[in-house]
Amino acid sequence: MPEDFEAYCNxxxxxxMPRNHFHDxxxxxxxxxxxxxxxxxxxxxxxxxxxxxxxxxxALHRSISIGxxxxxxxxxxxxxxxxxxxCTPQTNLLAAFYGNRLLQLEETQTVKIAAxxxxxxxxxxxxxxDLRRQNALVELLICLGELSNLKPTPPQSKNIEFxxxxxxxxxxxxxxxxELSLEILSRRFFISKSHLCRIFKAATGFSVGEYISWLRIxxxxxxxxxxxxxxxxxxxxxFKNNSHFIRAFGQVVGRSPGRYARDYRDVQHK
Length: 270
Description:
By secondary structure, this protein is α+β, with helices and mostly antiparallel strands. Helix content is 47%, strand content 19%.
């Protein structure tokens, strides 16, 4: 049996994601009330009621609630093995997640999607409860997939710090295996190190060092899932030595690179 999915509803008056993170799963974030700035990949969106973010597998993201309203949102995590098992030759339920899509739904659509989330959160006990819950998930993914084909992605936030930071994000991603110190970046973009740190944190919620390290870990995860050996993965992900790679990987993922690769193979072979 593939791993099960999780659906839940969170609400806070003020909220900031306590740490940058990514999941070995596909994720849907659906806002019911309040607003937040949401950073993912090289994009910054402002979310409000009816915003649905479809996060690709291992997408690095961070969000911060803004304004004074209570921030209420549904969250759905679907392991790759689970959603892959639901796909058919005619219907690829993964397609809507590619590229970290943002949908802005109309009110009638918002009410419908919220009801499906509630059903996904239903009890897992009792005759047929598991199938009803799974059917709600399938219907939810079909609806979001259909809407993703009809609705263009809304424009990104006009946050000034983010506009200044975007070229730096792009440069980091394109040079991830090279030396990426603050000194190098500040010279490259003709700004002081203190100013670079300030605008980067304000735009993304990450420090420069955190962002670089997490991107390297994400690349390492992808290479390990492809069957590469641990030492070559560390080098190809931009780590200076293997011991630093293993230590950093364990701090973020909670497992050694070797254990991560074995666990992934075990899930794939179930």
